[in-house]
Structures are given as structure tokens and as C-alpha cells.
Write a structure and sequence with these properties.
The strands form three sheets. This protein has a ten-stranded mixed β-sheet with strand order 7-1-2-6-3-5-4-8-9-10, with helices on both faces. A four-stranded parallel β-sheet has the order 13-16-14-15. It has a two-stranded antiparallel ribbon with strand order 11-12. It contains ten helices and 16 strands. By secondary structure, the chain is α/β, with parallel strands linked by helices. Helices cover 29% and strands 18% of the residues. The protein is globular, with a radius of gyration of 20 Å. Bound molecules: threonylcarbamoyladenylate (TXA) and magnesium ion. Magnesium ion (MG) binds next to loops. Threonylcarbamoyladenylate binds next to strand 4 and strand 5.
Length: 330
Amino acid sequence: MSQVDQQVINNAAEILRQGGLVAFPTETVYGLGANALDGRAVAKIFKAKGRPQFNPLIVHVGSLEAIEALCHVPAVARKLADAFWPGPLTLVLARKSDCPVSELVSAGLPTLAVRIPAHPLARTLLKTADIPICAPSANRSGHVSATQATHVSSDLGLRVDFILDGGKTSHGLESTIVAISEIKTPDIANDTSQNNEVFLLRAGAIKTSTLENLLGYKITKRTNMIGAQAHAPGQLESHYAPATTLRLNASSLHKGEALLAFGPNQPKHDGPCKNLSPTGELEEAAANLFSFLRELDTCKASRIAVMPIPAEGLGEAINDRLNRAAAPRP
Ligand code: TXA
Ligand code: MG
């Protein structure tokens, strides 16, 4: 590890607190970090990665107490945490109802992926910034993960405000992701050879057999599952779908509709209405998208009319999410 003095880490922490992007080393790969409490900062991650979709992100924190403020931590999660944290294990847990992390981090899901990294620079950064830091791997969408600071700068360049150089990462492979469900099905609850609480979502730096040895049973692999909810194959992307149907590219309102507006030219409307960004900024719109959809969904409107969102930049991911929310349901 190269020497990075505390003054450099102080600068990086300040950039994060001010809503900027900082790439930092973890023991697995470099992460592209933002303040997880700040939706606009989180939106910048998607913009920088150039990904046309919102994927949920891993939140990095410094302690189990910090995780307990965000998520429910059932006994089996605590057991895994005691054995493997700090380290390359990510747990997908149910968000607490008052979880302060931006909904964009969860891409609208009721769950949060969390981990306590082991890399000394990541730990010092978390301690200094004193905020949860969400970070996907610090590469452009579709590229391989960055294991050196030079990979980050050649891939992301000026899209990142600061790169903490910690040399080469030691694992070079991403964390193992495990989802913990609080749902038990009675028929296998008494069968100790298998388990329906713990699911492997991504193989990674910690071997599945190592997890299974600790738990004493086999872990089910589920790539078509998000958090505690099983989905039909191919539905991984469906995320949170509002119960109310959506009408896209609306320029005027029909009776009984709620309005999801964008920009300054909002049609006159007496019913429920949220404006994603009155000034027409896509970062602000991305930061508000999931919470506003959820809020309008509770209004008992006949439909949610959505104004057109420009297709450039982050608008691509916003439109992707809206298109899928508007698609016919089975
Ligand atoms: O080692 C790692 O995990 C690195 C370092 C930076 O921590 N991070 C990383 O992040 O690999 P990323 O974004 O490249 O991969 C995170 C994965 C994605 O496949 C995402 O779908 C999944 O985690 N994920 C995040 N939140 C989730 C959630 N609530 N439910 C299910 N999957 C989730
Ligand atoms: Mg990645």
C-alpha cells in the first residue's frame, strides 16, 4: 500500500461530504464512492459510470452499529458479520423504515446491500467522513473492475473528483453477496441440511464453501432474486413497480390522475403532484425518482401521468426505469 497521509484523506472526506465523487481502494476492487445520504451525489455515480440503468449499490460503513441504524440485522446476519467483517462479504438486508440512505441507492428496493471493508484506507476514509459511502466498482459500465488507481483514472478520468491511490487491491475480485430473507417456509424450517434464509446473489472473494462451513448448511444460489423477495426468472430488473399504472410522456392531465412532473412547464393540476426537478436538472430528478413514485403510489389516483424526461445523460436511466414501471404486468 502506498503511503497516503491524513491530510489527503481529510480532503477526500470533505469532497464526499460536499456531494462529490471519490474513488477509493477496498481489499477487493476500487469503489466509486458518494455520500449515500445525498441522492444528488448518488445520481452522479450513475452519470459517471455511463450506465443506462439504475442498479442498486453497495453501502460501505465502518461498524456494525452504523449498519444497525440503517437495516434490520437478524441473527444469521450477525453470525456472518462476526466471522467475515471487516472483509469482502456484502449482506443484503431489509431497510429500516426510517433508513436515511437515499432510495436511489436501493434503486427503489426495500433492501440495502452493506459491507464493512477491510482496506485500511477505506476504513480511515469512512471514519473521517463519518457518513455511509455507497460505491459500485470504479469502472465505466461494461468495463472490468479497477484494481489500481491508474485503471480508475483511465476509465473515469475527470468524471471523478478525487482518486485515493492505495496501490493494487489485494483480492482483485468483488465481494461475495449474500441476501438474508426473514421469511421462513415451514416445510424446510426444521430441516437443518438446507436453509431458506440465506441466498447467494454473487460469488466473490469469500468462497461459498467457507460460508457454508460456518453456517453448517448449504446456501441456495439465486441470481434471480433481489433482497427478501423472489422474482420469476428474468425479472431481476423489475425492482419496485408501483401498483398504480403509469402513463408516460403526458402533456396534459386526465381526471383522477396524479402527476409526476419534470421541469418548469408543469401543467396546471389540482390533484396529487410531485415535480422531479422544477429546474429541469436530471441529477435532481434521479435523486427524487423512487421516493416520488412511492409517494404518488399511495395517493389512490386512477393513474400516474408522467411528463416527458429528456433522453440524454441520466435521462436514459430515468426513462428506462419509467418504461419498466409502465410496462404491462403479468
Ligand atoms: O467488492 C465489491 O463488492 C465492490 C467494492 C467497491 O465494494 N463493489 C461492487 O459493486 O462490486 P457493484 O455495483 O459493481 O456490484 C454490486 C452488486 C450489483 O450486482 C447489484 O445488483 C448488487 O450488488 N446489489 C446491490 N444492492 C442490492 C440489493 N439491495 N439487492 C440485491 N442486489 C443488490
Ligand atoms: Mg461492478
